Amino acid sequence: MPPFKDEHILVIAPGSQTTLAQLGLPESFTPAQLRVSTRMFPAEKKGEWEPIKIRERKITKHKQDVAPDPIDGDTAMAGTDGQTNDADAADDEGGSYFEEDPTTEEGAVYPIREGRVVDWSCLFALMTHIYNTLSPPFHTPILIITQPAWTAQDHEIITQFFFEKFKTPAFCLMDSALAVCYAYGASTATVIDIGYEKCDITAVNDFLINDAGRGTALTGCGGESMTQRLLELLSTKGFARDMCEQLKRSGICEVLPSGTPMPGEAEAEEPNVNPAAAASAGANAAGLKGRGSVGDSTAALRVAASGTDAGDEAQDGEGEDNEGVLDVATIVASGKTSEFLARKEKEKAEKAEKAAAKKAAQEAANAPKPAKLPNAKRMTASFQYTERRPLEEINQNGKRPLQNGNENGEVTLKRPKTPEPQDLNETGASEPIPTSNAQTNGQQNGESTALIRRDVEVGVERFQAATGGILDQVADAVHRCILSVPEVGRRGDFWDNLIIVGNGSRVRGCKEALVAKLHSKYLISPSSATIFTSELPSNFTTPVATGANTPQPQSHMSNSHHGPGVNPLLAAAVTASNPGGLAPPSQHQHLAAQLQMQQYHQQHQHSGHGQTPTSIKLMKMPEYFPEWKDAGIEEAAFLGAQVAAKVVFVVDQGLSKGFMSRTEYNDLGPQGIHEFCM
Amino acid sequence: MSKSGVAVTPDCVTKFNELKLGKSIKYIIYKLSDDYKEIVVEESSTDPEWENFQKKIVDAKSSYKGKEGKGPRYAVYDFQYELDGGEGTRNKIVFISWSPDEGTLVFPRMTYASSKEALKNSLNGIGAEVQANNEDEIEYSTILSSVSKGKR
Amino acid sequence: MTATLSNTTAPNTADYGGDEISALVLDPGYSVTRAGFAGEDVPKSVIPSFYGIVPSLNGPKHLYGENAVHTPLPNIEIGNPVSQNGVVEDWDTATQLWEYAITSRLTNTKPSNPLTNGLNDKTDDLKQEMDGVETQERPLDENPLLMSETGWNTGKGREKLIEIAMENWGSPAFWLARSGVLSAFSAGKASALVIDVGAASTSITPVHDGLMLKKGTLRCPLAGNYISDQLRLIFSTAQPSVPLTPHYLINSKTPVDAGAPAQASYRTFPIGTEPNPSFRALQEERILTEFKESVVAVWSPGRLGGHNQHGGTNLDSARTQNARPFEMPDGYNQFFGVERYRATESLFDVKMALSDASHHAPTPNQTLPQMIAQSLSQIDVDIRPHLLSNVVVVGGSSLIYGFNERLKQELEAMYPGPRVRIFSPGSVVERKFSSWIGGSILASLGTFHQMWISKKEYDEHGPGIVEKRCK
């Protein structure tokens, strides 16, 4: 078989709401060229489908009052031009005509719900439509990203369809969690994919998916679930679903870590006291000075580590190093705990000063200056809501229809939000897609309509999109997923390599809040009793004055046979130790216990392992894909798909059986795909 | 019928009868065919040195789906030993199931274990049987003690 | 090739010149149900055998799968079709559960008999509709099915299993294998003494030349759940008691010193929606499992209640040495020394068992060594040494640190003559799934296809055929 060329590779990633596709792998991988809504409309004939709504209309006289618009906006599908010139032509003939309505969702069928295929005929029609839109030549290999919820039999059905319909020479199925790992270059990671109406949580171990305990299609944990939650909270204030959806996408909607007080609730004295700490009893937040014991130091570290986002200036920006996670173990181990804490104190003091000064300035000005306060501190905020209204109504109200039909309300945001699926030109494609979508001002129910934009004010409900329990559910599923990894000693790796993707996670603050939730609920604190990380130390560090002897987080080694050299300080400490009951052990006992543990485990081959997680870390975004930095890494599965496609089709050429060729399909049938799919 | 449905090729029985009657063949090593569908003779030999036999067994390999590991085997050995009290020598035909615990892939291990009965039942005249799972158990002395105890 | 592509049915493999269709392998347990395709290394579908029961307009509704069982829905209750004695009690639910294990990950859900699949109200209209419907698609009618069964499954139980496969699921072919035998084979032994330490049961299965010796096959009630119960008693009787509050009841926690009371904020449910105590019990089990994985161990050498070579007691040594830390979901944390060993000691030494009014201590005959002795006493004396030198230990709970060493020691003490050798897979996956793996290989052997009981044979001979063919 002649080698495949980069330009002739087709990648498709179907999601419950949006399907991404691309023909050709550019030099530097880009976000998807083609984004379509995962929906089709039933055509006149049963079993057939159309990409946009087609209505039958009786001939009537009507006026066209269409303002030409650039290609952009809310059409249903990359279909034909929506101009109703047909109508004019047909006017003269009498009878009925068919009119396309690119703006409506009425009657749309979504073939994938919560990750599962519910209508194969519709899905196949969509795939065909995408294929025809991109129009690849013959001899184009195809890679499909599969949903975790798809069964083995689903894989077979899809395999059969692609081979038989498109006569593809080579075909590859890849699980989306694995694709994400390819994007990040991580062989071992926990992938948390927050989608439209569900969430998938997968532990990938050396590029193998761990099936037991996998969180598949966790229902009610997607972006739409957050919109529904907003709707619950705001319907009494006249918000419809679409308004809530736009609110969710705007910059003023923010998910705050649990326990953060709403603006207007009891004000803390120090404006930057961590609200999580304030919420829990016995917090040491205020009194950090003067306590030398490990427990309090690490408590303070945890306070510093989690929820640093809350109350931070919005200007600090999204995502840079604001992962909101501190590697507590490293800090404690480095022995510089007190220094670190002192530095944090200083920073806090400085911030407190600043905030106090600001507050004073505000009070002096005696007028609210909303621009100065961060979003999370303001009682109310406004966002721009765009909706389609009949033209007459707009003209009556003296408003102007939008020239630039952008349906997203954007406030002061640096990072662009998810474009509507049809924003083909915004994603930096190298060439415009030939069959573009129609103008925004189409027909709605036979009347002229247009988009208008207005400001809408929202109160603290905008912080409560995730208060329906999503974070709890997802966090618990993450815990179960990682604790189902069979090798107990490896679990620490999974906690340290979290990846959060999925367009549902785009909501501002969502990822940080999830990580904060994981910290606050599941982190095993390296306090007085739990000095050990999940690995028995093979690089034991020298004990330090604080008594904290946390070993460095280490790379995975399931059985550490070789013992490290025992530190003489430890040995001396052992002789001075005195056995106690269940009373809190003294420092000496810590060291003594550690020495015992070490010796104990040197004797035995298979060592027992400690509890996890002792640290929780998000993986760093991959740096080497510049186009993706702006688009956001939420669609990393598609990036990974391109990486994989390159490896499997171009670089490897099938040597390691990364894809199924047509000859293999003819021999083995659709069942054969299981040997090849990843 | 064995659990696995694996068949015994006629050659296995023929060779065994030769060993039984002719007294020149010392041992026969059986293995599963590469497609794991039937039991075949791997080799037969007149070499009386136990150590050579042992080495052949211990070094045997099996592969499955492109991976290779240590291989289980079956063997029959015409075992000769001295009776206590100098009462002379005896011969017993020993059936040996070899399946090392370490280094074997699960698939061959499983297939050999579930097909053993098929082979054993087709060979008439076996005096003793040994299941060996590591190198100790295939030492001459170990086999001797099993065989001379009259273990079935 | 096919002219029209079917929307919902899988492609017909008869059209292709490939291998025969893959068989399904189903290995049900008390805690976990394992299912997958034959020929694969691990089961793709590993789901809890527990299921959720929630109220609905049409009466209680069953929810299966990992997500269902761990989400604190209002008033959720947790059930299990298998009893604590390792015997199926609720066949209807078991059928649905096992079907779900297969259709959720492997094959697809097909419209099964609407009357019995648990998804519809049994109205008269429906029944009328169903009358006269002769052939309809069955959920698992395309793949042969191999199921594992416990060593103590009765003749009636076996017939029930083939009935379910043939009649409820429409399996074209069926085979039933004893899980002990599958584990022995997968260890490469046609003869072995298989000890499978599971959740609800520890099974002792002597296998000889590929056949399970029924007389010596016993069920020991001391297994993973027993150890969990011991832990619960240890925690509740500690001074002060160790809290066992599951994650779903915690909103957030604060680090506290070892032994100090927890400082956490707790979740409350609106009155009338609290999950049933059975839900809490299952969630507590998650903590106990973690505890067993990271803290619990089996004492050796000697017995926990014994003395060491220096004259001191092992109990004292356990208290002072080798303590391991553990933190509860609410932040309470502590070093656990003697508790580590106490929880498992009564598997071997009944005197160390903790008990209370609702948890009776086991009798001396129920310890693991005693039950093994019982088992061996039932089988031919000539075979015993052979089995003792081929002990196969599998099962998730056998992974507890020190378990195999102690077992070997106890067997050697009981049987000083013969050589005691234990074979136990090193890989966690092989240890936990050994009987499934054995079934996967068996059902994928090219030669196995002649072994299956076909639908035709079932129709001719009835369920009794399983007793004749599956030995």
Distinctive features:
heterotrimer; B: 152 residues; alpha/beta; Severin; six-stranded mixed sheet; globular; C: 471 residues; alpha+beta; 16 helices; 19 strands
What does this structure look like?
Chain A is of the alpha+beta class and 678 residues long. Helix content of chain A is 32%, strand content 14%. Chain A is built from 20 helices and 20 strands. Chain A has a six-stranded mixed beta sheet, sandwiched between helices. In chain A, strands 12, 13, 14, 15 and 19 form a five-stranded mixed beta sheet that branches. In chain A, helix 5 packs across helix 6 and helix 15 (568-576) crosses helix 16 (587-603). The longest helix of chain A is centred in the middle third of the chain and has 29 residues, at 337-365. Residues 63-92, 267-325, 404-445 and 528-608 of chain A have low confidence and may be disordered. Chain B has 152 residues and is an alpha/beta fold. Chain B has one domain: 3-Layer(aba) Sandwich (Severin), CATH 3.40.20. Helix content of chain B is 32%, strand content 32%. Chain B has four helices and eight strands. Chain B has helices at 10-22, 50-58, 106-122, 140-148, and strands at residues 7-8, 27-32, 38-45, 61-64, 67-70, 73-82, 89-98, 128-132. A six-stranded mixed beta sheet of chain B has the order 1-3-2-6-7-8, sandwiched between helices. Chain B has a two-stranded antiparallel ribbon with strand order 4-5. Chain C contains 16 helices and 19 strands. In chain C, 32% of the residues lie in helices and 17% in strands. In chain C, helix 5 packs across helix 14 and helix 6 crosses helix 9. In chain C, strand 2 and strand 3 form a beta hairpin. Chain C is α+β, with helices and mostly antiparallel strands and 471 residues long. At the A-C interface, helix 2, helix 3, strand 15, helix 8 and helix 12 of A face helix 1, strand 13, strand 14, helix 7 and strand 15 of C.
